[in-house]
Design a protein that fits this description.
Keywords: Carbohydrate metabolism, Galactose metabolism, Isomerase, NAD. The protein is an alpha/beta fold. The chain has one domain: 3-Layer(aba) Sandwich (Rossmann fold). Helix content is 38%, strand content 14%. The strands form four sheets. It has a three-stranded parallel sheet with strand order 1-2-7, with helices on both faces. A two-stranded parallel sheet has the order 3-6. Strands 4-9 form a two-stranded parallel ribbon. The longest helix has 21 residues, at 4-24. It is globular. The mean pLDDT is 92.
Length: 263
């Protein structure tokens, strides 16, 4: 919300450039990373793909909404395009190996990396934005989905595109279960045997009270369902964070070996 031009430049101009380059190379197949933020404050729960979009509460969501509208116009005008837009809910977790995870670079980053930094003692408290929402414990409710389930959703989308001409299709990717911020913290503390002090502050501009997905369409048409629990999301992220307490190594050199023309 504080840097709107940066988001518009990266997301909107980046997508325009990408689409033009794709078309110039006769590449018309795309899986787009959209977001549940296109729904705005929900009119009903759980949220289906037919839920109205456009009443967006933040800049990030508006960029995703504008791109979806752009893709609608493009796929209607040029029938060669074959696009699936995946509306992510709230991805968390890390690869179970502990080798791949989210490397936060911002002062206020996503919830789970911030939480893990507090558990490690690198930050003093977890800042929770709002404890006066109309929810059972006063904190916002989200549909947290493991990044591995999200990755599998992309594979399922690619398989559908490879076998069918769909034009433009939209799917929710979520577990269908709402979990509050406080509930997530409690699970994280339990499975990692850590303590996370909380500091409640005012709500952030653009934050939503509660949202979770109805992912029935993805199940029926993509053959996709989530497999990971909220406990596994926390455990896998904690494994990544403890193996990489300072994130990815900085200023490392990468060696690329070329053999028989392949890298």
């Amino acid at each position: 919300m504080q840097q709107p031009l940066l988001y518009y430049q990266n997301n909107l101009l980046g997508m325009l450039n990408l689409l033009e380059v794709m078309r110039s190379h006769n590449c018309y197949q795309m899986v787009f990373s959209s977001s549940c933020t296109v729904y705005g404050e929900p009119e009903h729960l759980p949220i289906t793909e037919t839920h109205p979009t456009g009443k967006i509460t933040n800049v990030y969501g508006r960029t995703k909404y504008f791109i979806e509208e752009m893709l609608k116009d493009l796929s209607a005008a040029e029938k060669r395009w074959n696009i699936i837009s995946l509306r992510y809910f709230n991805p968390v977790g890390a690869h179970p190996s502990g080798l791949i995870g989210e490397d936060p670079t911002k002062e206020f980053t996503n919830l789970m990396p911030f939480m893990a930094q507090v558990a490690l003692g690198k930050k003093p408290v977890l800042t929770v934005f709002g404890n006066d929402y109309n929810t059972p414990d006063g904190t916002g409710i989200r549909d947290y989905i493991h990044v591995m389930d999200l990755a599998n959703g992309h594979v399922a989308a690619l398989k559908l595109l490879n076998d069918n001409q769909v034009g433009l299709k939209v799917y929710n990717l979520g577990t269908g279960k709402g979990v509050s911020v406080k509930e997530l913290v409690d699970v994280f503390e339990r499975v990692t045997d850590t303590k996370i002090p909380l500091q409640y502050v005012s709500r952030r501009l653009g934050d939503i009270t509660a949202m979770w997905a109805d992912a029935t369409l993805a199940r029926d048409e993509l053959g996709w369902t989530t497999k990971y629990t909220i406990e596994e999301m926390c455990t896998d992220f904690w494994r990544w964070q403890t193996m990489n307490p300072d994130g990815y190594p900085k200023n490392t050199k990468t060696t690329v070996i070329i053999a028989n023309g392949n890298s």
